[in-house]
Amino acid sequence: MAYKSVNPYTNELLKEYPFATGQQIADTLTTSHKLYKQWQKDNDLAARAQILHQVAQAFRDHKEKLAKIDTEDMGKLYRESLGEVELCAMIADYFADHGAEMLQPTQLKTIATGQAEVQKHATGVLMAVEPWNFPYYQIMRVFAPNFMVGNPMILKDASNTPTAAQAFADEVLAAGAPAGSLTNLFLDYDQVGEIIADPRIQGVALTGSERGGKSVAVEAAKNLKKNTMELGGMDAFIVLKDADIDEVANIAWRTRLYNAGQVCTSSKRFIVAADLYDEFLKRLKANFAAVVPGDPMDNHTTLAPMNTAKAKVKLQEQVDRAIDNGAHVYYGNEPIDLPGQFFMPTILTDIEPDNPAFREEMFGPVAQVYKVNSEAEAIEMANDSEFGLGGIVFAGDAQHGKEVASQIETGMVFVNNFMASLPELPFGGVKKSGYGREMSELGLMAFVNEQLIVTAAHPDLDNPAGGLVATDPTK
Ligand code: NAP
């Protein structure tokens, strides 16, 4: 599991990175913890906001360089990489603009003697474990809010996007953040466990697979460290019978092929009303067939390679297994004659509940399409999953779409639109898609000590429980 940057379009090994040494880890823990203590003392939110704006500006100033690294590390279309860099800048700006306000104390109404408030304090150094599919954005989702909170962050990024992870950390430091704000280390799994066990670590954030999430959550639990888990999804895209098929067709293929289908919230299951099923399939096939595989740096390319040879092999195995268990290939599943790790956009139908594909996340450009005879059946099928991340509902009447959305057991549902990730919107799931939220005020609070302070002018001597039980105001 060495850290290697291999361009999945050319298969060229671009750079290899050695694992962090014990000394690097020890030094990082010392520096990060010292910074936490320093921030606790100063708590200069305005200064941190200013630096975070500088980080945003640095991302914008260096967007071409950063986007190229992104594309070379994991293959995504260059224009999507540019979009990812801009989103990072937006996230940094958002928390710089709103972090201080979110961290103001909340006054409580209480019958206790004295004035009660919840203050929001930093808790300490975080260990963040992040994936390769959005090499910058995933890091920024944790870094920006926690920089405002005052929690320094140690980063273990995916072993196939090391250049992007290091570039992110370098930008942060060069933009003026103090050493220890964000330190990227090339760690093996045991080293991640050792860092989590260190008493100076107070929180663990992971975005990744169910398998990776379980392992890291166990390490966090063993050491009683608070953690957030952003895991996989089997998001449903429900098409109700009165949906506008033109709008549906225009969005459906994008939700599956964006980032070569490697998005936790990609629509992986299209659940379509019987009246629209044939037309939906026809349009999805036409759109899948129109994509142009090629050099992701070229603006004419519309299908990127997958991130690694290993990922492509895994997806092919899943598709083969689905077919062996009765799935019908409506379109695709043929080789693409290019050296990169391309997977032809594929549409599978006739997947029965006993087919393993019914429950497995396929992390690539493969759409599963299901026909349903009623809205109730659509909702039931959407919820028949161990995952609960996101979802999309297309309905003729948006308000009715909202009523359907509320019945989907996931953390996020978009009605009549593409799923969007923006700094002001909370991101996260339920069930095996994980727990906790990133982004928005909810995400900022993930690793905050919400400390209750009750201030009385004098002790309440009349209280028979010595203050442990609230005074009855009716007496
Ligand atoms: P993964 O294998 O779990 O890897 C994610 C990160 O966890 C990588 O840095 C990986 O390091 C690390 N990791 C894995 N096992 C570990 C262990 N035992 N100890 C310490 N670190 C460990 O996930 P992936 O397959 O690359 O990423 C795709 C998955 O992420 C999909 O399931 C996708 O749905 C999910 N995802 C979820 C969200 C969300 O917000 N909910 C967003 C994006 C992706 P190595 O690279 O060194 O193995």
CATH third-tier fold name of the largest domain: Aldehyde Dehydrogenase, Chain A, domain 1
State the total count of DSSP E strands. 20
What percentage of the residues does DSSP assign to strands (E)?
Answer: 15-25%
- Shape, principal axes of CA atoms: globular
Tell me the CATH superfamily of the largest domain. Answer: Aldehyde Dehydrogenase, Chain A, domain 1
Q: How many domains would you count in the coordinates?
A: 2
CATH architecture call of the largest domain: 3-Layer(aba) Sandwich
Number of helices: 14
Structural class: alpha/beta
**Low-confidence parts:** none
Ligands bound, unique: NADP nicotinamide-adenine-dinucleotide phosphate
- Using only C-alpha atoms, the radius of gyration works out to 24 Å
CATH first level of the largest domain: which class?
Alpha Beta
Task: Pick out its properties.
alpha/beta; Aldehyde Dehydrogenase, Chain A, domain 1; Aldehyde Dehydrogenase, Chain A, domain 2; seven-stranded mixed sheet; 14 helices; globular; binds NADP nicotinamide-adenine-dinucleotide phosphate
